[in-house]
Amino acid sequence: ACSGNSESGGESAEGEEGQASGDQVVDISISDEIPSMDPSLVTDQHGMQWTGETYEGLYRTGEEGDPVEGIAMDHETSEDGLTWTFNLREDAEWENGDPVTANDFVYAWQRAVDPDTASEYGPYMMAGVIDNATEVSEGEMDVEELGVEAVDDYTLEVTLDKVTPYFESLTTFPTFLPLNESFVEEQGENFALEAENTLSNGPFKMTEWSHGESMKFEKNDTYWDADTVQLSEINAQVVKETSTGVNLFETGELDRVSISAEYVDQYSTEQSFRTIEEPSVFFLKMNQSNDGPLANENVRKAIAQSIDKEGLADTILNDGSFPANGLVPENFVTSPESDEGFREANGDLLPTDKEAAQEAWAAALEELGTDTVEIEMLGDDTDKAQNINAYFKNQLEENLEGLTLNVKSVPFKERLRLSDEMDYELSVSGWSPDFVDANSFMNMFVTDGGYNQMGYSNEEYDALIEEAAGDSADDPQARWDAFLEAEKILVEEDAAIAPLYQRSTAYLWNPALQGVYYNAAGHDFEYKWAYVDEEAAE
Amino acid sequence: MEKHKQEPSADWFERVERDEEKAQEISRPSRTFFQDAVRVLFKNVPAMIALISLILIILMGFFGSSFSSYGPNEQALERSNLTPKIPVLENISWLNVNGMESSVYEHVTAEQAQANAEVRFGDDSEFVTYTVLSEGDGSPSSGQVRADYDRYAAAGMEDEYFYFGTDRLGRDLWTRAWEGTKVSLYIAFLAAAIDLVVGVAYGGISGYYGGRVDNYMMRFLEILMGIPNLVVVILMIIILEPGIISIAIALAITGWTGMARVIRGEVLKLKGQEYVMAAKTIGVPDRKIIAKHLIPNVMGLIIINTMFTIPSAIFFEAFLSFIGLGLQAPEASLGTLVNDGFKALTTTPHVLVFPAVIISIIMISFNVLADGLRDSFDPKMRDR
Amino acid sequence: MEKILEVKNLSVSFNTHDGEVQAVRDISFDLHKGETLAIVGESGSGKSVTTKALMKLLPEPQGFIKNGEIMFENEDIVKKNEKQMQKVRGKDLAMIFQDPMTSLNPTMKVGTQVMEGLIRHRNMNKQQAREKAIEILKLVKIPEPEIRMKQYPHQFSGGMRQRVMIAIALACDPKILIADEPTTALDVTIQAQILDIMKDIQAETNTSIIFITHDLGVVANIADRVAVMYAGKIIEIGTVDELFYNPKHPYTWGLLGSMPTLDSSEEELFAIPGTPPDLLYPPKGDAFAPRNEFALKIDYEEQPPMFKVSDTHYAATWLMDPKAPAISPPPSVQKRMQADKAKKGVLK
Amino acid sequence: MIEDQREKLVEVKNLKQHFKTGRKTIVKAIDGLTFEIYKGETFGLVGESGCGKSTTGRSIIRLYEATDGEVLFKGKNVQGKKNKKDLKDFNRQMQMIFQDPYSSLNPRMKVLDIVAEGLDVHGLVNSKEERKNRVYELLETVGLNKQHASRYPHEFSGGQRQRLGIARALAVDPEFIIADEPISALDVSIQAQVVNLLKKLQKEKNLTYLFIAHDLSMVKYISDRIGVMYFGNLVELADSEELYKNPLHPYTKSLLSAIPLPDPDHERTRKRIQYDPEAYGSNENRSFQEVKPGHWVLCNEEELAEYQGAALT
Amino acid sequence: MARYILQRIIYMAITLFIIATISFFLMKFLPGTPLSAQERLSEVQQQIILEKYGLNDPVPIQYLNYIWNLMQGDLGISFQYDNRSVASILETRIGPSFQLGIQSLIVGSILGTLLGIVSAIYHNGFMDRISTFIAVIGTSIPSFIFAGLLQYFVGVKLGWLPVATWGGFEYSILPTIALMIFPMATCARFMRTEMLEVMGQDYITTARAKGANQTSVVFKHGIRNALIPLVTILGPLAVGLLTGTLVIEQIFAVPGIGEQFVSSVMTNDFPVIMGTTLFFAFFFVLVVLIIDILYGIIDPRIRISGGDR
Ligand SMILES: Nc1ncnc2c1ncn2[C@@H]1O[C@H](COP(=O)(O)OP(=O)(O)OP(=O)(O)O)[C@@H](O)[C@H]1O
Ligand SMILES: Nc1ncnc2c1ncn2[C@@H]1O[C@H](COP(=O)(O)OP(=O)(O)OP(=O)(O)O)[C@@H](O)[C@H]1O
Ligand SMILES: [Mg+2]
Ligand SMILES: [Mg+2]
């Protein structure tokens, strides 16, 4: 059930096939230094991006957004759907000439789950998916007990904990990438700390890593599908200021840079302007755990309905983002039976409706027995976020009489910490899927779910999610319905969260850079098929 | 040698009794040291201009926002990013404060360029007037068309005037600029005040008691100064959570060391002065010596130092905003406004220009005024 | 004797915040070859300003020569520009300042400072200049000049620094040496040494000296002629004997009378009451009038001209006018005059 | 002997004042000073710059804590720990006039407050009116007038300031005044004013002075007895007439021979006597001895005999 | 001299030790752990991570460990960058900051000094006005505005120099200019005052009385004496550059230590914050030491007496 819809790189890349011409060197900007290039440890967007490019897992997300051949040529699934046997290609090599074998996967996966590795994503992605992963990660079982086994060098057998329809999509995720055991052990502490401490089996290899400054990825000639790879070099430059990025783009030093709302007006008619829609949804988390006003359903409903999301998306974000009226994003998953997307199927849940909001508010005030309510809202401290925060404050205070919204903007990490400790009332949060399945969103809010963090608990909701994961796991239509139902409960009935917008990112994109595909989950961009067509730029 | 022209009459040669009283008379008018300083200051043209600018800016900080009917946090997305429009001045074209958004579109021909522009304006095309700058000969960017987009008309508010324009949220920048000025000045004054109290007390005590006390106090100060102030300010802000008061406190925590050193040096010098010894021989208690003899004599220095502290506090606040540790939205200070504007330097320059100009005027004025004060308090300078 | 310098009707003013300070008001005097002219007068009477005007070293831009001529070797210094003055300074006119502690550059070796003028005005190379400098330092009795040359001023005592200052001034054999209170900052014993050195050198080089001081004892020691200044004017000028033994101006009387002599007894000192006038508001008549015990009506109305006492002796006081009432100087001055007469009488 | 009949007001005994100027370096500003000042006299202290005259004055008035030795004022030790009342008392009886007329008056205080400070501290006046009148009186005593009370020090000339300093000292009715070079910063024509004033006050109020100066002719004029200091020690002490007529110590001789006198004839014939400290040797085995009644010299036995011989003739 | 320096070095060490102590305990006050995303980590994992950072020990033990490690040059491991040692992070970041700092300090102070001298020579003249104006503007306009304008006009519009990022020398020119404006302006203002002060001194009159011309008066007699007090403000200026680099590095995408510091602050990366603080402090005391030595070289009065000021 891996029906993803990954947006293709750009309009100009669509349709006619371009031809590579000119220097196949691409310079792009990234907004931050990479904390780690260790596939087991990566947690951030850029780290995933580049581990995704330098390693090849069982499958790789293809042009159409579905898994295509990677190290695995194909796989068989057992009757009960719990045993997956992957047949690996024999011509895949590591950068150093070692063959890529089934054992590399076994080693990598065991390493990811091993508590000593202290991987965040390892247990998170594998627990409840791969047999015994939970027990191993909690130190109750030996890593050898993990449900993954090298039958022979080129046959990998995976035993699942329960039926996982989206497992194929998972195999493209960094945590599931293989590792060359002898290399990793040899490097020890130093593994993946510098360019020379990495070993690639993917389309590109990392050849330079100037921390905080830039990274260079060159085409990996030992890659089994090296013939397909056309780019000879990708340079990723750390640029934190948007204006600097734009200036670098203007002088031709960057081929792609993401821009902020301010620049969209200026560049929106240019050929190089491009927005990329992402399956990331932003919403207000409402902490219902304490006795604060947000425990009141009407307060939540009032808040959810009173923000003008249209204005937010069009004027403040101004980067192609659009209002979200539900948790699961648009253009993400489609019905198993038709092409109907999740959003279309479930419709707009709790859309902006100021009158309804005010009604709910009046009711809420009555229930609370007060006419002034003070709420603190946690938000990020980036410039964009500051604007959003100010906007919310204004919107909510204007529409809901008697409400005082205190904004507290903190650095991202600090917001995560405060969320963790449930030390907030309202929080502007976002979610991007880790795999292409509605569950990546929906399982967040089960009672005591890892990311619930707001004391939300609804038995009905829990039951539906449980059912989707368990009983009806192999019945796609039942799962689908369960998710639709659950979302309605979460957003419309309980107003547990207030969906805000689905993110797009605006880019200045050198028209010559083509064939870059956007992935809905895992690493964002796929460069395997990318090329530079200088002629297309003219 | 010299001949006098007119023979003086004889009765002029009478003896005149010497008047002892008169011999002791002081011909100069009586003026205090401060009056003298002020007089010199008043003759210093740049310093006076600076002083007047400061007074005007402070007044505007308090009353500027009342010239506009919009509050500092009043938003309306339909009037987002309006360019400045000022009555009367709007007719002077080069000032460019007529609320028009002008941009030049380029393409191979003027027509194509205009077409390009029309795409950009979409539904609002009726509010755009096009002026062809160059017809174009088919080579890239040879065709140029200037589009003047009447943003006010497009927003349906032809009769409104936003003197400094609006920002992305449609907030009136005029009001926000003056509110921000007020906040920035407030932070600066607060920081300077704390700085002054702590610095003067510390420096005064250290200098006056001297010896071992001074030695330890100075060692401690040196260690404090060994921690880069930037680090301290940032740490303080993390601990205290961003806000007006915490920024002021954070600034003051590191700022006072400079004041303390200056005051100590001066007190050390002054306490060797004979008038201090005279007071001691009379039996004046230490407390009074500090209060009546030392502090008034370092007053000039204190004032000058404070004058220099204020702009650096404003500077620092702007800097904190820039690295994201400034005030919380939607609170505005000059620092946050400049920071907002900086991001759109090339697209909506008006967002940057006005707060940047105000901040610069404040900084320049304080610096010039402080220089002037230094000259007027320095007797050496006075005679020059 | 040949006149080397002639100052005519010199006036110098300063622009200050309070208005124009008329520091020197219309003074005239001349200087002969090889003589020492002492200028005395109390603080602020314009002594330094006069000499600074001679060197054209008035502080810019406040100080300016308002009027007058300074004829040096038939050329008017007032008309010279800065470039021309640089050729004159140090070579023809040299100067020593009051405070030896601040008059030497603290960051430059003493030797270099002495050599500077030699290299500039005498076109010497470094080696020659060094030898010459050592010679001059020896002349002013600096022990071990070779070593001292390499040291910095702070390693010198006050008296030695002042000797270095003299060495610097003498380096180019100036025709006129202007010494502005060169011994005021020094102890009496050291002062005496410096005075001796200056006298020795003058005997050797026949330099003319303008010596500024307010210490009449020093004047008596070193001067050939004396000019007494008060409130920007020269009020009496004459040879040292004329001035000490036959003073004519009440102010000179006051100066002489206010100094106790070693053999004076219990009597009260002759004090001039009051304080000198503020040159911002110079009085209409005689500036000294309000403090003058013997003031006449006319003193408040008109400034007295220079009355001639002898060919060399002039005094600016209306008391010298024939119409003025006869006045007897204070006892201490009378005592002086008598003592002198007695001496002369003995000689005769 | 005559001295015995006079009352000793101040006794300085083996006073030492050492300053630490660096970690290791110590300046021995005064080193074992002993002398007395009798009631009603003027004791002159001369010596070259830096020989420790000011330090002596300041140690006597307790501005410095003495390193060693004691200072008795009316028989009571001034140095050492004191209670507040004693201190206050002491402050009233002993006052100081300073050298620099510019730095000795607080530029930010009005003359009225400067002069009245002593009155305030010691509670000598009860009302504002009385305070004012007392200040006017003091100003008149020193030859100034009422109008001056409302002015600031920088408006006064040097001589006037020095008189303000005297008025301030007089405010608390002291018995003993230390005048530290009160005239050396003044103009010649003004010096006499101040000296005359000091003399007049002494007569009127029966004051005792310690008069510090380096101008020997002035010191001789004003002092009854004179002590000559050299490098932190007294080298000679005698009645002023005696000292001038009959200087014994080579340093005193040299000092006297160096004073320029306003008498050209005298100057033309003067002979200076050089003092060569190296030739003279160290003071190690020399002590302060009375050569003849009231005339003390720092000398060894040999010299003592020689001096006594000279004194007799 | 050697003894003096040794003494100063001991003193430096004590200062650093105290600063290390203060910053250690300050950090203990702040919330936040290396467990950035707790919800994904099992109990066992959390323990393992805390163990790795030694955070399971009681605070006093942690402190002793910290100081002990510090003395061995070990600044700990970053919270943010997995397994990366703070020392190695600082190491890679110091270079660019140092280059920018030194360049702008040297160029800025030299230019500023010259401006100040010109000002003093043409006191109240046209040149004086101009350089005073430059000085006031330079101290009054935030450096990031200069930086933005420089980047846009010189880099983008004129295309004379690289817009941003770090490479050869030419990449450092624009950030250096942006960074040096403040020290330049400060030096100019300071130098002007000092020169005017010096030009009024007696020894300058002495020099002029010797017949020295203006150039020789200014350059041989004036500058050196005016430089002595100038040296004292170089310390604060050098340290003040830290503030500047932070912003300038961000704008010009320079991988410097200032930029690293901000991002550590934003990510609660305490070991790196502490390491950077210590580095900054070390830099500061070092600068002060250098300046004191420099002082002795320029001022003979101090040189001889062995530096005890
Ligand atoms: N730079 C200046 N600006 C204004 N007035 C000045 C300046 N220099 C000197 N004067 C004034 O000129 C007058 C004469 O000063 P001058 O220095 O010649 O006195 P002096 O006789 O040398 O006194 P002293 O004995 O103190 O050196 C004084 O009244 C002084 O106030
Ligand atoms: N507070 C102090 N600290 C260190 N040294 C001092 C201090 N006060 C005085 N001295 C030193 O003690 C010595 C004697 O100083 P003092 O002021 O008593 O001399 P003086 O005879 O009064 O000289 P002058 O005639 O110059 O006033 C000098 O060498 C001086 O440098
Ligand atoms: Mg003078
Ligand atoms: Mg003294």
Description:
- The complex is a heteropentamer of chains A (538), B (384), C (348), D (313) and E (309).
- Chain A has 538 residues and is of the alpha+beta class.
- Chain A has helices spanning 45-54, 102-113, 121-126, 133-137, 167-170, 181-187, 242-250, 261-267, 297-306, 309-317, 342-346, 354-368, 383-399, 412-420, 439-442, 459-469, 476-493, 534-537; strands at 25-30, 59-61, 67-69, 72-77, 83-88, 148-152, 155-159, 204-210, 214-219, 233-238, 256-259, 273-286, 322-323, 373-380, 403-410, 426-431, 497-509, 513-514, 517-518, 525-526, 531-532.
- In chain A, strands 11, 12, 13, 14, 15, 16 and 17 form a seven-stranded mixed beta sheet that branches.
- Chain A is globular and about 75 Å long.
- Chain D has one domain (8-312): Rossmann fold (3-Layer(aba) Sandwich).
- Chain D is 39% helix and 25% strand.
- In chain D, strand 4 (68-73) and strand 5 form a beta hairpin.
- The model of chain D has no long low-confidence stretch (mean pLDDT 85).
- Chain E has a domain at 94-303: MetI-like fold (Orthogonal Bundle).
- Chain E has twelve helices and no strands.
- The chains are: A alpha+beta (538), B mainly alpha (384), C alpha/beta (348), D alpha/beta (313), E mainly alpha (309).
- Chains A and E meet through helix 3, helix 7 and helix 14 of A and helix 2, helix 4, helix 6 and helix 10 of E.
- The structure holds adenosine-5'-triphosphate (ATP) (2 copies) and magnesium ion (MG) (2 copies).
- One adenosine-5'-triphosphate is lined by residues 19, 21, 27, 29, 47, 49-55, 214 of chain D.
Percent helix of chain A, as a range, is 25-40%
Low-confidence stretches of chain C: none
Mean pLDDT of chain A: 85
Instruction: Note the quaternary state here.
Output: heteropentamer
Q: Count structural domains of chain C.
A: 2
Shape by Cα distribution of chain A: globular
Largest β-sheet summary of chain C:
8 strands, mixed
* SS-based class of chain A: alpha+beta
Radius of gyration of chain C (CA) equals: 21 Å
Query: What is the total tally of β strands of chain C?
Result: 12
Helix content of chain C: 25-40%
The chain-level structural class of chain C is alpha/beta
End-to-end separation of chain C: 26 Å
Protein name (chain D): Oligopeptide transport system ATP-binding protein
InterPro entries (chain D): AAA+_ATPase (IPR003593), ABC_transp_ATP-bind (IPR050319), ABC_transporter-like_ATP-bd (IPR003439), ABC_transporter-like_CS (IPR017871), Oligopep_ABC_C (IPR013563), P-loop_NTPase (IPR027417)
Domain ABC transporter (chain D): 10-256
Family (chain D): Belongs to the ABC transporter superfamily.
